[in-house]
Design brief:
4 domains; 24 strands; 24 helices; Chondroitinase Ac, Chain A, domain 3; alpha+beta; seven-stranded antiparallel β-sheet; five-stranded antiparallel β-sheet; Immunoglobulin-like
Length: about 650
C-alpha cells in the first residue's frame, strides 16, 4: 500500500511538471525561490520535476501534504494542473492545511511579472547595468537580481525595481496601504486616503496615562473567505486594525467603502478575524455582542471595542437590480507584429491611476468605461471572425469573489498575414450560463502602426557596440556575479576612497553599479583593469583573479600601477576578514550605536557607518578601532598604522 501511495505521488509530480515547461518553468522557479536553494533554481539543466523533487527533499511536500502545489497552480492560473492536484487530494482523503505558504511578496512579484511585456523589461536591464545579451526574458532578470540580493522584500528595493517597469507593476508590488499612529487617552484618527478607510478612536477609549501604537492596514493579498453561496462575494477592502486583541474602554468607529449598488437589493453581513491564526467568521454566526455594523451610501460603518480583521460581504437578493460598481475597459496597442489587447476592471475611484497607466503603456481605449452588473467570477473569451489573426490564449478568468481595485488580463493577437491591417475582435464576458452582452472591438491596425504613441519598436540590434568595449562590459558583468553577499560588502569597503558616498549609499547599489562608477571616473578602462586585479587579491577570490588575468592576456592589456588601493584600505579589508562576528555587539556598544544594532548586522556595515560619520579618519581613531577587532585583526592593521 505504501509503495502504491509513493508511486501515485511520483506520478503526480511527473504529470504536474509537464504543465511547467517553457516560460511556465520560469514561473515555477520564481514561485519557489524562497523555498529552495539557489543551486536548485539556477541549475541550467533543471526541469519542473527537479524542482518538485527538491521540494520533497526539504520536506515541503510529501505524499500526504501537497498543499503548496495546489497554491502554486492557483497562483499561476493553471486550471488543468490545479484539477490534477485537487483530484490527488480528494482521491487520497488528504487534509487541507495552511503550511507552508508562499509569502505575500512572492505572490505579488509573480503577478507583477505577468504584467511585463517582453519588450518592457529592457529598461530594467539598463537600470541595473546588466548585459542585454545575457537575458532573454524578465524572469531571468528577476532571478539575477534576487541572487544578488538587489531585489528583496524590502520597501526601498521593491520601489526601485517597480519604478523601472511602470504603474501596472508598481500597483501590484508596492504596498502603501498601511499607517501607524501612537494614540493616548485624548483619542485620534487614522485615515488611508487612497482607499478612504478611516479608524476613529474617541477620547477616553484608551485609559489615562497610557499610549498605544495603533495600526490600520488594507490587506491587498488574496485571502480565503467563507464565501459559500454563488451570489455571495466580498464587496469591500479587507481591513486589519492592530495591535490584535487590543480592547478599548469606549467603542471605536471603523468605516470603509464597498462596491454594492442599489443596497436594498443586497443582504449584508460582516466578516471578522480575531487574530491572524483564526478563521474568518460571519458576525451573524458568532456570539459577538460588542460589535455592530451599518451600511449607508456605499460605506460600511463598524462600532467595535476590540481590534481584529474586518471585511464586508454581500449577497445578491435580486440579480436584475443589484450591481457591483466595477468599471470595465478594453485597451490595445501594436507591438511589432503582435497586437496586445488588455481587458481591465477597476473601482471608479481608481480612474486616475488607470488613465496614467494607459498613457504610460501607450495604449488606446477601444471600449469601456461602463459599470457592469457583476456578481461572480467572470470568464472572458476572445473570438476573431477571420484567419488573418490568431489568439494565443483564447480565454481567461477574472476573480470577482474578492474585492478588486484594479485587475487586468492580456490577450496577445498574432498576425498570420503580414499584409492585413484590419483587426476585428469580439469579447464575450460570461458568468456561469448567464452571458453579459457581447463587447465587439474593431480597430484598423495599420493606423496604429503609423502612430508613434501606440507603436513600441523592437530595440534589438539598434546600437553598434565596439567589440573591445563589449568584452570590457562582459568582464564587469561577470565580476559582479561573484561579488554578492559579504563579498559585495567587502567590495564597497575597498572602494570607499574611490567612489562618492552618495553612490555607495544608493539603495539600488550593486556590484555592477560600482564597477560602472569606476569606469565613469576612469579608474578602470578597457585598457586598464589594475584596480580590479588589486581588489581581487584583497578579496581572496581566485576565480576573479583568473577572470581578470585572462582578460588582460586576451586583450593584450598593459599592467600599470595606477589607481591601486591604498595600503590602509587593503589591510583594513584583510583585517575585517579575520574578525570574529560573535564580538560585533561589543564593538557596537563601544561606539554607543546600540540603537542602530538592527542596521549593522555585519562588521562591514559597522565600518561603512563609522567611515561615513568620519570616525576612521585620524590615525588615533584607526588605532582605537583596530584594538576593538581582536588580536589577529589588530596585528594586521597595526603594521600599516605604524608605517603611517
Amino acid at each position: 500500500m505504501a509503495d502504491s501511495k509513493l508511486h501515485e505521488f511520483r506520478n503526480l509530480k511527473s504529470n504536474l511538471s509537464r504543465f511547467y515547461d517553457g516560460e511556465r518553468y520560469f514561473w515555477l522557479r520564481l514561485c519557489l525561490f524562497d523555498l529552495l536553494s539557489v543551486g536548485d533554481v539556477t541549475n541550467p539543466d533543471s526541469i519542473g520535476n527537479d524542482l518538485f523533487n527538491a521540494l520533497e527533499d526539504r520536506g515541503l511536500i510529501t505524499p500526504i501534504n501537497v498543499n503548496i502545489l495546489l497554491e502554486i497552480t492557483k497562483l499561476t492560473e493553471m486550471k488543468d494542473a490545479e484539477n490534477l492536484v485537487t483530484k490527488y487530494i480528494n482521491d487520497n482523503n488528504l487534509p487541507n492545511t495552511d503550511e507552508p505558504k508562499l509569502s505575500s511578496f512572492r505572490k505579488r512579484l509573480f503577478k507583477a511579472m505577468r504584467q511585463v511585456h517582453p519588450d518592457e523589461f529592457r529598461g530594467l536591464i539598463d537600470y541595473y547595468n546588466l548585459i542585454h545579451s545575457s537575458y532573454k526574458n524578465v524572469w531571468d532578470v528577476v532571478l539575477r537580481l534576487e541572487m544578488d540580493v538587489v531585489l528583496t522584500d524590502k520597501p526601498d528595493k521593491i520601489e526601485i525595481f517597480a519604478n523601472c517597469l511602470g504603474p501596472a507593476v508598481k500597483e501590484i508590488l508596492i504596498v502603501k496601504d498601511r499607517m501607524e499612529l501612537i494614540v493616548d487617552s485624548t483619542g485620534g484618527t487614522l485615515h488611508l486616503k487612497d482607499e478612504d478607510i478611516k479608524l476613529e478612536i474617541q477620547p477616553g477609549a484608551i485609559e489615562e496615562g497610557k499610549a498605544v501604537n495603533i495600526s490600520l492596514e488594507n490587506i491587498v493579498e488574496e485571502i480565503d473567505m467563507p464565501v459559500s453561496h454563488p451570489l455571495e462575494s466580498i464587496i469591500s477592502p479587507i481591513v486589519k486594525c492592530g495591535p490584535e486583541g487590543t480592547i478599548f474602554n469606549k467603542p471605536c468607529l471603523l468605516s470603509f467603502p464597498h462596491n454594492a449598488v442599489n443596497e436594498e437589493f443586497w443582504e449584508f453581513t460582516l466578516l471578522f478575524q480575531k487574530c491572524s491564526q483564526d478563521k474568518w467568521k460571519k458576525l451573524t454566526e458568532s456570539n459577538e455582542k460588542d460589535m455592530n455594523f451599518t451600511s449607508k451610501n456605499g460605506r460600511c460603518f463598524i462600532n467595535l471595542i476590540h481590534f481584529s480583521g474586518f471585511a464586508f460581504m454581500g449577497r445578491i437578493r435580486n440579480v436584475f437590480h443589484a450591481k457591483k460598481s466595477i468599471k470595465f475597459g478594453v485597451f490595445g496597442k501594436m507591438i511589432v507584429n503582435e497586437y496586445q489587447l488588455r481587458v481591465k476592471f477597476w473601482m471608479p475611484e481608481k480612474q486616475q491611476e488607470v488613465d496614467k497607466e494607459q498613457a504610460y503603456q501607450g495604449e488606446k481605449l477601444l471600449e469601456g468605461g461602463t459599470v457592469l452588473s457583476l456578481y461572480k467570477d467572470l470568464e472572458i473569451t476572445v473570438e476573431i471572425p477571420n484567419q488573418k489573426w490568431r489568439v494565443v490564449d483564447k480565454s481567461v478568468k477574472i476573480i470577482l469573489a474578492q474585492y478588486l481595485e484594479i485587475s487586468s488580463k492580456k490577450f496577445c493577437l498574432e498576425r498570420n498575414n503580414s499584409s492585413t491591417n484590419l483587426l476585428k475582435a469580439k469579447l464575450l464576458l460570461s458568468q456561469d450560463s448567464n452571458v453579459i452582452p457581447e463587447v465587439e472591438v474593431n480597430c484598423d491596425v495599420g493606423a496604429l502602426i503609423s502612430s508613434p504613441s501606440n507603436f513600441v519598436p523592437s530595440r534589438s540590434n539598434s546600437v553598434t557596440v565596439n567589440p573591445w568595449q563589449e568584452r570590457f562590459n562582459k568582464l564587469k558583468h561577470d565580476l559582479s556575479l561573484l561579488y554578492v553577499g559579504d563579498k559585495f560588502l567587502l567590495l564597497r569597503c575597498c572602494l570607499f576612497d574611490h567612489i562618492d558616498l552618495q553612490h555607495l549609499t544608493d539603495p539600488g547599489c550593486i556590484a555592477h553599479y560600482l564597477f560602472n562608477k569606476l569606469h565613469e571616473k576612469r579608474y578602470i578602462t578597457p585598457t586598464n583593469v589594475s584596480l580590479l586585479l588589486d581588489i581581487a587579491k584583497v578579496s581572496d577570490l581566485n576565480d576573479v583573479e583568473i577572470l581578470i588575468n585572462q582578460y588582460v592576456i586576451d586583450n593584450k592589456v598593459p599592467n600599470t600601477d595606477e589607481e591601486k588601493l591604498s595600503l590602509y584600505r587593503s589591510k583594513l579589508c584583510e583585517a575585517l576578514k579575520q574578525f570574529d562576528q560573535n564580538t560585533l555587539n561589543g564593538v557596537i556598544a563601544f561606539y554607543e550605536l546600540d540603537s542602530m544594532r538592527m542596521q549593522l548586522p555585519t562588521i562591514w556595515d559597522l565600518v561603512f557607518h563609522l567611515e561615513r560619520i568620519g570616525k576612521l579618519v585620524e590615525e588615533s581613531e584607526r588605532k582605537i578601532f583596530a584594538e576593538r577587532l581582536g588580536t589577529i585583526a589588530n596585528n594586521i592593521l597595526l603594521t600599516v598604522l605604524a608605517d603611517e
